[in-house]
Amino acid sequence: MKTCLVVDDSKVIRKVARHILETLDFEVAEAGDGRDALTHCEATPPDVVLLDWNMPVMSGMEFLKALSATDLPKRPKVVFCTTENGIGHIKAAIEAGADEYVMKPFDRDTIASKLQIVGLA
Ligand SMILES: [Mg+2]
After folding, report:
1. Residue 77, CB-side half-sphere exposure with 13 Å CA sphere
2. What is the CB-side half-sphere exposure of residue 12 using CA atoms within 13 A?
3. Which domain covers residue 87, as residue numbers?
4. For residue 40, how far is its CA from the centre of ligand 1 (angstroms)?
5. From ligand 1's centre to the CA of 52, what distance in Å?
6. How far is the CA of 9 from the centre of ligand 1 (A)?
7. Which of 38, 6, 32 has its CA nearest to residue 104?
8. Average pLDDT of 38-60?
9. Cα of 113 from ligand 1 centre, angstroms
10. Across all residues in the chain, what is the average pLDDT?
11. Cα of 80 to ligand 1 centre, how many Å?
12. What's 26's domain CATH number?
């Protein structure tokens, strides 16, 4: 089973994402900020990370940079989630190592197509 780590400080968004991902046959884990996510990735690297941008403690961008600095044998794919007013962040995130992005609010079809693009559907 493919694994996805959902990283978002919103419990509601994590719940929505989990539901979508489970219907796509992913095993889902959750983290509430970038630092939690990094700890999780170092212990049990998922196939893909669905990454929020704005979070307390450690932001999505800080997480991306920290993930690149780890020596994981296989780096998880990263799909980051942005809002309409976050369009300017897309280029920076891709440069920092994100593989794809989705706009919030996302739906099942969008998530499914992005996972397909990164090779996980
Ligand atoms: Mg957030």
Report:
1. 17
2. 3
3. 2-117
4. 18
5. 6
6. 5
7. 6
8. 96
9. 22
10. 94
11. 11
12. 3.40.50.2300
Radius of gyration of the chain (CA): 13
Q: pLDDT for 15-28, tens place per residue? A: 999 999 999 999 99
Residue reference for tokens 């989630």: 81
pLDDT at 85 over 90: no
Give me the percent of the chain exceeding a pLDDT of 70.
100
How many domains is the chain partitioned into structurally? 1
Pairing of strands 100-103, 2-7: unpaired
Expressed in angstroms and rounded, the spacing between residue 53 Cα and the centre of ligand 1 is 6
Ligand 1 centroid – CA 1 distance (Å) = 27
* Residue 51, pLDDT score: 97
> Largest Cα–Cα distance in the chain?
35
